[in-house]
Amino acid sequence: MSTDNTNEDEHRHDVLIPNDADENPRVGKPSDCAGGIPAVLSTFKHAARQMGVVKGTKTLLQMNQKEGFDCPGCAWPDPDHRSTVEFCENGAKAVADEATKMRVTPTFFARHSISQLMERSGRWLNAQGRLTQPMVLHEGRDHYEPISWDDAFGLIGEELGKLDSPDEAVFYTSGRTSNEAAFLYQLFVREYGTNNLPDCSNMCHESSGVGLGEVIGVGKGTVLLEDFDKADAIFVIGQNPGTNHPRMLTALQSAARNGATIVSINPLRETGLVRFKHPQEVSGIVGKGTPLASLHLQVRINGDVALLKGIMKEMLEEEDRRPGEVLDHTFIENYCEGFEAFADDLRQESWDELVEKSGIERAQMKEAARIAIEADSTIACWAMGLTQHENGVANIQEVVNFLLMRGQMGKPGAGACPVRGHSNVQGDRTMGIWDRPTDAFLDRLQERFGFDPPREHGLDTVHAIKAMHDGSAKVFIGMGGNFLSATPDTNYTAEALENCELTVQISTKLNRAHLVTGKKALILPCLGRTEIDVQESGRQFVSVENSMGVVHPSEGKWKPASEHLLSEPAIVAGMARATLGDVSNVAWEELVEDYDRIRDAIEDVIDGFGDYNERVRWPGGFVLPNGARDREFHTDTGKAKFTVHPTPEHKLDDGEFLMMTIRSHDQFNTTVYSNDDRYRGIKNGRRVVMLNERDMVEMGLEEGQKVDLVGTHGGRERVAPEFRVVAYDLPRRSAGTYFPEANVLVPVDSYAKRSFTPASKSVVIRIRTS
Ligand SMILES: Nc1nc2c(c(=O)[nH]1)N[C@H]1C(S)=C(S)[C@@H](COP(=O)(O)OP(=O)(O)OC[C@H]3O[C@@H](n4cnc5c(=O)[nH]c(N)nc54)[C@H](O)[C@@H]3O)O[C@H]1N2
Ligand SMILES: Nc1nc2c(c(=O)[nH]1)N[C@H]1C(S)=C(S)[C@@H](COP(=O)(O)OP(=O)(O)OC[C@H]3O[C@@H](n4cnc5c(=O)[nH]c(N)nc54)[C@H](O)[C@@H]3O)O[C@H]1N2
Ligand SMILES: [Mo]
Predict the structure, then answer these.
(1) In terms of CATH architecture, what is 113-200+424-545+552-588?
(2) Residue 57: is its pLDDT beyond 80?
(3) Burial class (CB in 10 A: 0-12, 13-18, 19+), 226
(4) Nearest CA to ligand 2 atom 26
(5) Å from CA of 758 to ligand 3 middle
(6) What CA–CA distance (Å, rounded) separates 435 from 453?
């Protein structure tokens, strides 16, 4: 682990994340039902406002169809029998946001200086529309100016060429990048000579990848969509599907109708998990909705290890009472190791401590254990509520312990289901976007392309920020994303980016990462998912991998937002040629002429992609191999592993709170669509801190009061000023704020062990009132 050098640094400045001037939060009651008429209205309103009524409706009808484009909203899979309208409210917003009629042209940049744009909210920046032309920021200037693609690539080649070592450059990827673009990008970066390939996954499901990889031999989930219909119990842990994976509610609804019991584990009673009205069913428009979770465990923030241990301890005690009836001994003996140590640890845990640390009564743990015991098949789903803690990897491995006890892996209706975020974040990793590539992968790359790829592991997101901060990395290139606002410790990251010689953002929309730059900066605008991509050989499609390991095509249908846009693969090829020159072993231009050629190269390098070009054209695509799904555990011992983890403890001093940073219903990561959070009943304001009412009374805080949130991790004070207090139903001493407004408070040095995922769901803060 790197040492903390943050406290020696003087604050050079505060990069405040301004909000809209007219924000003034109003708080009503959280809704008790997700979907229904409000979701339908919201969908069409967004689409029509951004695209116009005709294009809006047409676009919605093309989403997630077998011939259409993959929804850029999330990585939830498409059902085999798709309705003509296979989209959700929030997917529609993501599409409308990309297909908007608004444009950010060179005139826009001539009119607005960077200093002026810095005063604007992220929502405002995004709302200005699609980027249309490559732009450059020359050293010492306050305005971006137009630049030709050739000159832009030339500048990148020149700056990368100047570095003492390729390891002084950082190549970030966000998770919308297609397989084809991602494969070319890592190929370029490795031929250039570094494994510095941080990605958004580092901040997202890295704890799942590391955790699962260690104990079941594959860093991905083990269930398919059809398993939801076969499950008797579904545990949804640390996830808010009603907002972030709305199409998952359809799967949960149909599972519930088939008799499955759904358990939700969450400090908040999230609307989508309570009751759901399918917006695309008649009964969903007018009916009462389907009740979903029948047991809600309102766990303390980061109380999941304690809670899962409590549930498993109950299961173990029940097994002692009814030997052979609770545990799957055959599975444990044949496929697992480490059970004895695991069971011993559970036996010695004290009930009082498990109850105290989880915030959940023993009777409720017993009830959850009963549901698990009565279920022949159980699925456990999770997202950021588990991964973004210092013990994020342990959280995931406790979930695996829970599943292994009853052999709930590698059989129908059962298994682990990390629900991914960005629509191709899983595919990007499969393609080699990884700071820690395996030797086997690099060998194959070497064999196929005939250069020596670097073997030393590269920088992940946290370490890339530190390297730029201390000057050991000098060029930053971002393939999508919003590196400034998505990362922890906004001010520290701002200093890191400003230390660079050159920062490059390959983007569709304007965001704050375009404003906090290196000495020189480039904006390279690219085609989005929804747009037609024509290369030498004609119209192209790309491919993506969903959360369940299904690879399928995605083809844009709309005229590009500007004639100057290039596709991501073409941009990579341009950067590669300008940087590597004629000595490159890769025929960049040829590959980009016809994406089938890129897929042929992928097939040669990556397992599971045999006959890629043929199979990707199959209706619905194809499924990647996954050992654990067939009870083949490719761990170092060939067994699935039970593991033992200490129960985390947060010793909060008087006046301290444990804060989680979460998404509202009207944002996609750092892209804020509006200042409302409809399901939680919070309107017209994002600078809010949700607190338990009794804590408010104790602290003498009033609803709506303005406070500063202060963190002091590692001896450095971090302040998020002027948040409004909102009383909300969450456990004592917990606080909830929105990402990215609260990222200034997430310490760059607080991250999950082994996965280095920033602990953005357990930030210790104080509340300052004057
Ligand atoms: N519309 C929309 N869709 C999205 C996104 C978006 O921003 N908007 N983002 C995409 C991306 S990249 C991702 S990764 C996913 C994110 O999807 P989620 O993980 O659902 O997103 P978060 O808002 O971070 O919510 C985390 C949930 O975990 C709970 N939680 C927080 N701390 C804890 C804890 O300690 N224990 C437990 N048990 N629960 C906890 C919170 O109350 C919240 O319900 O969504 C993807 N889809
Ligand atoms: N405090 C806190 N921080 C968090 C989180 C949290 O829960 N709490 N969540 C973390 C998670 S899970 C994630 S995944 C990260 C997300 O981190 P990022 O992926 O870096 O952030 P996004 O906000 O998704 O990026 C949005 C930008 O991507 C660009 N973009 C959109 N579509 C395309 C495209 O097709 N191609 C290209 N080239 N660019 C495109 C647009 O310019 C847009 O402004 O944030 C992390 N940060
Ligand atoms: Mo994510």
Answers:
(1) 3-Layer(aba) Sandwich (3.40)
(2) no
(3) middle
(4) 481
(5) 12
(6) 13
Task: Quickly count: other Cβ atoms within 10 Å of residue 356's Cβ.
Answer: 15
The pLDDT confidence band at residue 82, using thresholds 50, 70 and 90, is low
Name the closest-CA residue to atom 38, ligand 2: 480
Q: Assess whether the C-beta atom of 530 lies below 6 angstroms from ligand 2.
A: no
Which part of the chain is CATH 3.40.228.10?
A: 206-418
| Per-residue model confidence as pLDDT tens digits over 668-700 | 999 999 999 999 999 999 999 999 999 999 999
Among all bound ligands, the one having the nearest atom to the CA of 243 is 1
| 3 state DSSP class of 290 | strand
Residue with structure tokens 């730029």? 468
For the segment 638-642, the average pLDDT, to the nearest whole number, is 98
Under 8 Å between Cβ of 530 and 51: no
In the chain, DSSP finds a helix count (H) and a strand count (E) of: 30, 33
292 half-sphere exposure, CB direction, 13 A CA radius: 32
Assign domain 23-27+651-769 one CATH number from 2.170.120.30, 3.30.450.20, 2.40.40.20, 2.60.40.10. 2.40.40.20
Mutate to test the pocket of ligand 1, among 71, 176, 244, 657 (most ligand atoms within 8 A of CB): 244
Q: Identify the residue whose C-alpha is closest to ligand 2 atom 20.
A: 481
pLDDT at 9: 44
For ligand 1, whether the C-beta of 380 sits within 6 Å is no
- Average the pLDDT over 591-600 and give the result: 98
Query: What is the topology classification, in CATH, of domain 206-418?
Result: Dimethylsulfoxide Reductase; domain 2 (3.40.228)
User: Do 365 and 303 touch, CB atoms closer than 8 A?
Assistant: no
Q: What is the 579 CA–ligand 1 centroid distance (Å)? A: 39
Supply the residue whose CA is at minimum distance from atom 42 of ligand 1. 268
Which residue among 309, 663, 764 is best mutated to probe the pocket of ligand 1, counting the most ligand atoms within 8 A of its Cβ?
663
Ranges in the chain annotated CATH 2.40.40.20: 23-27+651-769
Q: Which of 126, 205, 384 to mutate to test the pocket of ligand 1 (most atoms within 8 A of CB)?
A: 384
Mean pLDDT over 411-424 rounds to 96
